Amino acid sequence: MFVETKQSNPDLDLELLQGYLDSLGKVIVEQMFALYCQQVEIYLNDIENAQLNDSLSGWQNHCHKMKGAAASVGMYQLHGQLKLIEKAEVSKEKKSVLLKELRLLNDQAVFAFKNWLETI
Description:
Mean pLDDT: 93
Low-confidence stretches: 1-7
Strand content: under 5%
Order of helices and strands: HHHHH
Structural class: mainly alpha
CATH class: Mainly Alpha
Helix content: over 70%
CATH superfamily: HPT domain
Number of domains: 1
Distance between the termini: 10 Å
Protein backbone atom coordinates (compact mmCIF):
# COMPACT_ATOMS: atom_id res chain seq x y z
CA MET A 1 0.00 0.00 0.00
CA PHE A 2 1.23 3.48 -0.89
CA VAL A 3 1.50 5.82 2.09
CA GLU A 4 1.66 9.52 1.34
CA THR A 5 3.99 11.80 3.21
CA LYS A 6 3.27 15.36 4.20
CA GLN A 7 5.38 16.50 1.25
CA SER A 8 3.28 14.58 -1.26
CA ASN A 9 0.06 15.86 0.28
CA PRO A 10 0.36 19.56 1.11
CA ASP A 11 -3.33 19.73 2.02
CA LEU A 12 -3.26 17.39 5.00
CA ASP A 13 -1.13 16.86 8.08
CA LEU A 14 -0.95 13.10 7.69
CA GLU A 15 1.12 12.64 10.83
CA LEU A 16 -1.61 14.26 12.95
CA LEU A 17 -4.35 12.31 11.17
CA GLN A 18 -2.49 9.02 11.63
CA GLY A 19 -2.24 9.82 15.33
CA TYR A 20 -6.01 10.35 15.46
CA LEU A 21 -6.57 7.07 13.64
CA ASP A 22 -4.28 5.17 15.98
CA SER A 23 -5.78 6.57 19.16
CA LEU A 24 -9.43 7.18 18.22
CA GLY A 25 -10.20 4.90 15.29
CA LYS A 26 -11.64 5.53 11.86
CA VAL A 27 -15.26 6.00 12.99
CA ILE A 28 -14.34 8.90 15.29
CA VAL A 29 -12.12 10.47 12.61
CA GLU A 30 -15.05 10.26 10.17
CA GLN A 31 -17.31 11.91 12.76
CA MET A 32 -14.76 14.69 13.29
CA PHE A 33 -14.63 15.27 9.54
CA ALA A 34 -18.44 15.29 9.25
CA LEU A 35 -18.66 17.87 12.04
CA TYR A 36 -16.01 20.00 10.32
CA CYS A 37 -18.00 19.87 7.06
CA GLN A 38 -21.13 21.09 8.89
CA GLN A 39 -19.37 23.82 10.83
CA VAL A 40 -17.26 25.13 7.96
CA GLU A 41 -20.39 26.29 6.14
CA ILE A 42 -21.26 28.42 9.16
CA TYR A 43 -17.71 29.79 9.39
CA LEU A 44 -17.61 30.67 5.68
CA ASN A 45 -21.00 32.40 5.89
CA ASP A 46 -19.86 34.33 8.97
CA ILE A 47 -16.64 35.36 7.22
CA GLU A 48 -18.67 36.47 4.20
CA ASN A 49 -21.03 38.53 6.39
CA ALA A 50 -18.04 40.19 8.05
CA GLN A 51 -16.60 40.96 4.62
CA LEU A 52 -19.91 42.38 3.33
CA ASN A 53 -20.31 44.52 6.46
CA ASP A 54 -16.64 45.55 6.31
CA SER A 55 -16.20 44.35 9.91
CA LEU A 56 -12.52 43.87 10.74
CA SER A 57 -13.23 42.31 14.15
CA GLY A 58 -15.82 39.96 12.64
CA TRP A 59 -13.42 38.98 9.87
CA GLN A 60 -10.66 38.26 12.38
CA ASN A 61 -12.95 36.35 14.80
CA HIS A 62 -14.49 34.11 12.17
CA CYS A 63 -11.21 33.46 10.35
CA HIS A 64 -9.72 32.56 13.73
CA LYS A 65 -12.51 30.05 14.46
CA MET A 66 -12.18 28.45 11.03
CA LYS A 67 -8.38 28.37 11.42
CA GLY A 68 -8.77 26.35 14.62
CA ALA A 69 -11.25 23.99 13.01
CA ALA A 70 -8.99 23.44 9.99
CA ALA A 71 -6.03 22.71 12.27
CA SER A 72 -8.04 20.24 14.35
CA VAL A 73 -8.76 18.10 11.28
CA GLY A 74 -5.24 18.39 9.90
CA MET A 75 -6.02 20.70 6.98
CA TYR A 76 -2.49 21.97 6.79
CA GLN A 77 -2.62 24.29 3.78
CA LEU A 78 -6.05 25.74 4.64
CA HIS A 79 -4.87 26.48 8.18
CA GLY A 80 -1.81 28.26 6.77
CA GLN A 81 -3.95 30.42 4.47
CA LEU A 82 -6.29 31.36 7.32
CA LYS A 83 -3.26 32.32 9.40
CA LEU A 84 -2.21 34.70 6.62
CA ILE A 85 -5.58 36.32 6.01
CA GLU A 86 -6.91 36.40 9.59
CA LYS A 87 -5.15 39.67 10.41
CA ALA A 88 -5.35 41.11 6.88
CA GLU A 89 -6.31 44.77 7.03
CA VAL A 90 -7.29 45.12 3.39
CA SER A 91 -10.24 46.57 1.51
CA LYS A 92 -13.67 45.01 1.39
CA GLU A 93 -13.03 44.23 -2.29
CA LYS A 94 -9.73 42.46 -1.55
CA LYS A 95 -11.44 40.44 1.18
CA SER A 96 -14.03 39.35 -1.36
CA VAL A 97 -11.18 37.88 -3.44
CA LEU A 98 -9.61 36.29 -0.36
CA LEU A 99 -12.96 34.72 0.54
CA LYS A 100 -13.34 33.19 -2.94
CA GLU A 101 -9.82 31.76 -2.65
CA LEU A 102 -10.63 30.49 0.84
CA ARG A 103 -13.73 28.67 -0.40
CA LEU A 104 -11.70 27.02 -3.17
CA LEU A 105 -8.94 26.01 -0.77
CA ASN A 106 -11.53 24.59 1.63
CA ASP A 107 -13.13 22.56 -1.18
CA GLN A 108 -9.67 21.27 -2.12
CA ALA A 109 -8.92 20.30 1.51
CA VAL A 110 -12.30 18.55 1.92
CA PHE A 111 -11.67 16.62 -1.31
CA ALA A 112 -8.18 15.63 -0.11
CA PHE A 113 -9.57 14.49 3.24
CA LYS A 114 -12.29 12.39 1.57
CA ASN A 115 -9.68 10.78 -0.66
CA TRP A 116 -7.44 10.09 2.33
CA LEU A 117 -10.36 8.51 4.23
CA GLU A 118 -11.01 6.18 1.30
CA THR A 119 -7.41 4.92 1.42
CA ILE A 120 -7.49 3.84 5.08
